[in-house]
Amino acid sequence: MKLYIGNKNYSSWSMRPWVLLRQFGLPFEEVKLRFDSFSADSQFKTRLAGIARNGKVPVLVEDDGFVVWDTLAIAEYLADKYPHRGLWPADARQRARARSLCAEMHSGFGALRNHCPMNIEAWLPEVGARVLAEQAGVRSDLDRLVEVWTEALENSAGPFLFGDFCIADAYFAPVVARIRSYGLPLPAQAQAWADALWAAPGVAAWVADALAEQDFIPFEEPYRTQP
Question: At what angle do helices 125-134 and 136-154 cross, to 10 degrees?
């Protein structure tokens, strides 16, 4: 399998399936397409042409050319392809709950996404404090995240949301990256899970690569100018 991704420092959608593949030791080849811009004539869009008709990453491509796009579809495909690896919780109700959390993340939390874009190598606590003070939507998103995480953790054997690492944990990894970069506060239980997630091998490997990129892209940096 080949997984086409964007810059690791910025591409929250790419992070999810990459972390999942790496955490579970599933074989794949990474193909990184650098973000130069998202205009139709950009190198990024040009390289994606013929691979993903929606023009977005991530994209998973099998050896025979079969293509899966959209992060959630890729996660489900991998769970079907490797049914004995436990990518979803084994219990049907826990599995349904994990899917519900992923679906909510997939379609929601727009205020947090917009005001706190993923930037792993950045440390912007003053921006985070200002955003929390000024943006009711971000406060609401953070409260809801804490609510769903706490509910899952209270019914989990830990250290992850549903006991062992699963798709739901990978799905929230970019949010944890945002929370860390912007210094957003979490209660103790949620913070302990976030710390465990950050130390998980798949997440740690992505973060290490993101920090090594040193590729400043101005349109991805609303709060900073180039160092």
Answer: 100
